[in-house]
Amino acid sequence: MRLLYYYLQIILPIPLLLIFLQLGLTWVFGAGLLLYVCIYRPFITGYRLLAMGLIRREDFSKLFIPLYSTRYFYDLHFKP
């Protein structure tokens, strides 16, 4: 159930961004996509890794480094 909740958290903002794109609000889409990739997704990933006990609180900020979370890919996407 927690894995499903994680997937919902990372997927639900995408349709909203696509709606902005279809409405012709490309600057809102671009800004939203940038916020999603740079801020929202690392926070969600970090909180999941903290809850699973895979990282310490001090390592949370490292998730904002591009591709840093790939070392936890299996744990994030396939472990319940």
Describe this structure in words.
The protein is mainly α and 80 residues long. It is built from 4 helices and no strands. The chain has one domain. Helix 2 runs antiparallel to helix 3. This is 1-acyl-sn-glycerol-3-phosphate acyltransferase. Keywords: Membrane, Transmembrane, Transmembrane helix.
Order of helices and strands: HHHH
Strand fraction: under 5%
Q: Summarize the main sheet.
A: none
Shape: globular
Q: How many domains?
A: 1
The pLDDT mean sits at 93
Are there runs of 5+ residues with pLDDT below 50, and where? none
Query: Which structural class fits the helix and strand makeup?
Result: mainly alpha
* Helix percentage: 55-70%
Q: Count the strands?
A: 0
> How far is the first residue's CA from the last residue's CA?
7 Å
Number of helices: 4
Radius of gyration in whole Å, from Cα?
14 Å
List the helices and strands and how they pair.
Blueprint: H1 2-11, H2 13-22, H3 26-52, H4 73-78
Helix pairs in contact: 2-3
Keywords: Membrane, Transmembrane, Transmembrane helix
Transmembrane segments: 6-39
Protein name: 1-acyl-sn-glycerol-3-phosphate acyltransferase
List keywords for this structure.
1-acyl-sn-glycerol-3-phosphate acyltransferase, mainly alpha
Outline of the structure:
The chain has 80 residues and is mainly alpha-helical. 66% of the residues lie in helices and 0% in strands. Keywords: Membrane, Transmembrane, Transmembrane helix.
